[in-house]
Amino acid sequence: MQTVAKKDIPESLTVEIEKLSNLGLGIAKYNGYIIFVSNSCPGDIVKIKIGKKNKHYGQAEITEIIKPSRYRINPFCKMQKICGACQIQYIDYDAQLKFKKNIVEDTMHSIYRDMVEVRDVIPSPQIHNYRHKIQYPIGETRDSKRILAGYYKPGTHELVNIKYCPIQPEYCDEIIDFIRIKSKELKISGYDEKKHTGELRHVVIRASAYNNKSLVILVVNSNIQSDKIKKLAYSIYTELKGIAGVGINYNTQKTNLIFGEKVDIVEGNGYVEESLCDKIFKIGAKTFFQVNPKSADNIFRYVKNYISSNFDCPTILDAYAGITAFGICMSDIASKVVSVEEVSESVQLAKEIIKENNIKNIELHCEDAGKFFAKESMLGRLFDLTILDPPRKGCTIESLDYALKLTRSKIIYVSCNPATLARDLRYLTDKGAKVEYIQPFDMFPHTYHIENVAVIDLSDI
Fold this sequence. Notes:
This protein is of the alpha/beta class. The protein contains ten helices and 22 strands. It has three domains: 6-72, CATH 2.40.50.140; 98-125 and 292-457, Vaccinia Virus protein VP39 (Rossmann fold); 133-276, CATH 2.40.50.1070. Helix 8 packs parallel to helix 9. The longest helix is centred in the first third of the chain and has 20 residues, at 93-112.
């Protein structure tokens, strides 16, 4: 409970960090007033300088670490503070898992409110070189016009040029550096966000943990293929090893969205292959697929083991299916899988994967999930189990209602956002569902992000 007005909060304080927020910021209190402290660790005793203050909380930076937490370590990347991609890399990995479990518990307590078991976080098999989707904004220096590629400095649109990133495969650094050099040779300009000028906006790499091949997508500020960009694509494909294909995406909009609508594959294939549950998948430029394939494999095997232990050849609805990864992985323990996904590229890849894996019991639908649910509800078809794997914003109320109507026994809800998961679980339990437990997985080591699998029982509805 707040006991002090913001005007009475000193500009400088010495505080102890109590825990982490859901955004990876340390939480400290001054007479009940909450202060979020960046780059801090639970157990730290620090001097801080408070910046922005509002009625309910303030934001602060550390000016001195008086006594470091026992969980604090030296980051393995010298760019950690500048880059901002690995917000909690300075915390010991085992402690990261503990704090992430606490984040899920705190979120459930604040939004879901009922008691629910949150299990210990299952760690990532890799904590270095795990990130297999790289999306770098491209810019250039003002005078020399040298190409810059990296991430934005936290809280800014100042581009940090990243030469080496230890959380992604080393060959991705080599691809990016090649693009820097070759773009300068070809006089390709980097994008200026303020002026909306420049040719090359982003480079996106889909890298395979299965065979170390890469799909490279050049996002251009144009509606056509320039000769310079085509030469760059050809050079990437012919001069670098392990390139599965190179594509060009066209995005002329003043937007923070990376991709425009159209992707042309100009060299090689439009996909890379990846392995999950001993099945081979094709991942396209705009296909949703987890960035940490080995941790994703943990999740898929976990769900598969749960289903095989609790059901005998069930009918499964795979909603928000992407390339039908869950459905394909579950197909050999199901009598039938019905998959729904609205992105046509993903559905087309799913068709190819199903054919190549000789799977006969999957029914594919290219359709918005909500519209599909409504149609199925009218037809009266029921499923033993529904797998929900929605985007970060979670499910709509209509989709949750239909999932309840269409499912006989269980819903397995896979979420990358504890807040929207908690919101949706609260809605489902208000309708009579029961949450058996939540199993977190660490998909994104050294960040505040956490993936969760919630098992939901519908037997009392």
